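Input chain follows. Return structure tokens only.
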Amino acid sequence: MTTHGKRLSQRVTLKTIAGHVGLTAGTVSAVLNNSPAARSIPDHTKQRILEAARELNYRPNFFARTLRLNRTFTIGVITSEIGDDYGSQVINGIEQYLQQRNFFFLTVVHRHNAGLLSSYSQLLLSRGVEGLITVDTSVSESPSVPTVAVAGHQSVAGVTNIVLDHRKAARLALGHLKDLGHERIAFLKGQPFSSDSASRWSAICEVAAELGISVRPELTVQIVGTDSSPTLGYPVGKALLARREPFTALFAYNDISAIGSIWALREAGLRIPEDVSVVGFDDIPGAAFARPGLSTVRQPLIRMGQIAAQTLVDQIEGRMESVPEIAIEPEFVARASTGPAPSREDMNQMFRPESSATTVVGC
């Protein structure tokens, strides 16, 4: 058997790598575990150790590592949904970063059930997680471990909130519609349990006032339900049309409600964007492939997950102090679902004025 074959048949340890590169096992351990002691080791030495570990096919013993360092290298992820586009992309980013750092993560889904949220948090802590990441989940109490909240908005000691700049997002979307000549804009307001709803709606109302755009209660519909598919937007689109209040553009809380509302608008014989322009929020993967392609505010969801994971690991390992907030910049993606506003005469012809008893909401 060749030397290489013998090497593969034997368990490769830190001592094996240390002997291969002519360094101490402690130095090798510091580099491979990325401990604070590794900061004083030259980069070229770190590179030699990492190359040797790859060459020797080194696989760390998780339990030995845990006992030696008194750590679990595990974090908990608490999310409201796991199959929706928003949550799955954020978790995708979390996974990408943690995989690079040899961290495990455990995920629990509470589906906005307060009882489950409380019990799952305790369950994760009992499993020895070193920190928590929450996704679309409000954190109201100071945690016992470092915690990062994606779309967190409450100021809580020990929690770092990863937040989108909602004022800029509202300005991008409403400014786009105003530049196209839209004055009567309808709004789909997010569900109260969604952690972004209140902040996003407040930003929309403030920016609309600054731009001279009226947020009319009769053109504002509250989204209800927990569906994570475009089905969510269909009934609220129908409810909006039932009011027979003329509008030339619709700004939806998220992409799935925007796409669902387009179904309702088309069913009523309205063309997108010739009769009504539609803007979403998030830029989920399906937004570009909607018919027509959806204009939307882009949240860098995968990147937000990566930032959350990096921030948490840095706090756990002492490279970063807890900060209250990390702001993320949005972008606007203009696609085929928005176009110039129709004339007032054309708009009035599309909507027959009739009375409606539908409940309305406003700013």
